[in-house]
Amino acid sequence: MNYYELTLEIQDFNHWKDIFVAYLAELEYESFVEENACLKAYIQEENFDPKATHDLIFELASKGATLVGYHVQVIVQQNWNKDWETQFEPVLISDQLRIKAPFHQLAPFNGLEVQILPKMSFGTGHHQTTHLVCQQMLSLDFNGKRVLDMGAGTGVLSILAEFLGANQIVAIEIEEWSAENIAENIVLNNCKRINAIHGGLESIPELIFDIVLANINKNILLEHLKTYANILTRGGILLLSGFFVSDAPQLVSAAEKIGFKFHGLYERENWAALHLIKIT
């Protein structure tokens, strides 16, 4: 599978990088790498729309973003994986969780350690949203719980849920290559209670869950909220991320209309995670 690599050289990089990531994700760009003052974004060849990308860049330029330049090139999968491995660094979340690749040679760690094969999937812990969800998961009781991980990416949240004591985890991922990566990471971490499914909303089994994890994007989350309400037990927890702090009020409002109670908002570099509780 070939990918397109979009390289953006952006002035005021720290201010604009996350804004570009959010908008590009809505065009089906899947993974992002920061390199000096450049943002590299990757999209499957079949999903690449040059006009949509061009229009987005000029839309953001009209809002104040200044681009020194940008270019696009095709990256074959083998070269991608090699390049991605060189970019992948361990992630430490407080002193409780470390996310690493199998090739990392590190000192012993006293907390939980999740191993991830870095093969393009979103969810290595580097992005602020994955970091936020992992951080909140560490504060929750997963013992004996039934968990849905929607848009599971690498499966890192599902694996962490099992490590935290969840009894049954369903990990659903719409991208085939990413679902394959989840299966690899399940084996790598010796997990036994995760059911990885390639599919979308229609693939959710007829079960009632105690916790739903959904790190996707605002528009999809808004579409999925009613489904999450229907499959959560009363008192169940919904952890959402994948959006900016400024988007949180819209999500909270929509959730409260269908039986959720706002419990907490957590921020990291302008990205947000929401903790909601089903009360009806």
Give a verbal description of the structure:
It is a single chain. 36% of the residues are buried. The radius of gyration is 18 Å and the shape is globular. Helix content is 33%, strand content 33%. With 280 residues, the chain is an alpha/beta fold. The protein has a 7-stranded mixed beta sheet with strand order 10-9-8-11-12-14-13, sandwiched between helices. A 4-stranded antiparallel beta sheet has the order 2-3-1-4.
Determine the CATH superfamily of the largest domain: Vaccinia Virus protein VP39
- What percent strand? 25-35%
Can you tell me the CATH class of the largest domain? Alpha Beta
Q: Name the average pLDDT.
A: 88
List the helices and strands and how they pair.
Elements: E1 3-10, H1 13-26, E2 31-35, E3 38-44, H2 50-62, E4 67-75, H3 77-87, E5 91-93, E6 97-100, E7 112-115, H4 128-137, E8 146-150, H5 156-163, E9 168-173, H6 176-188, E10 194-198, E11 209-215, H7 218-231, E12 232-244, H8 248-256, E13 260-268, E14 271-278
Parallel strand pairs: 6-7, 8-9, 8-11, 9-10, 11-12
Antiparallel strand pairs: 1-3, 1-4, 2-3, 5-6, 12-14, 13-14
Keywords:
8 helices; Rossmann fold; seven-stranded mixed beta sheet; four-stranded antiparallel beta sheet
